[in-house]
Amino acid sequence: MSNIVTDTTIYTGKPDCTGRLQKETGTYDLLEKLGIEYFRLDHKETNSIDDCHEVERLLEIEICKNLFLCNSAQTRFYLLVMPGDKKFDTKAVSRQIGSTRLSFAHAEHMERYLNITPGSVSILGLMNDGEKKVGLLIDRDILKSEYFGCHPCVNTSSLKIKTNDLLTKFLAYTGHSPSYVEL
After folding, report:
1. pTM value?
2. Does the residue 86 lie in any domain?
3. Which of 1, 42, 63, 107 could join 52 via S-S bond, C-beta 3.0 to 4.6 A?
């Protein structure tokens, strides 16, 4: 048995929210409101893509790598969503979006704009970016999968959501239009 997953039960729908953070329960509430179905696996804290391999196997998905980035002046912020097995090439992404060299943004900005902490970065955090301070960048390879894997704004659960629902229903609700990149 893994040290990350102790109960291999796959759930559908919202859990009993007793003891869960509001940012997680708010995610489930929004997905329910938007009519987005999902599969959920609860697990111990995952802090990296490497920690997610058993979660991926059980949910039969690839958990996406979500990177919170900024330009060199720290005036523009981006959420880059890419396959977990790809390497981040800052020069290539910066060139494709016409930005100065991108680097990892500070945790304070992540919490301020997305209400998430390092290790829990997720496209679902865009629901907290009402001012549209964060640009969304999606690697084109994400579009090839029927399902999308991500955290519900905390890294103690993982979700399997239809990619189309995420791109059409969720992003339509948040008002974020993705820019597509190739890594």
Report:
1. 0.92
2. yes
3. 63
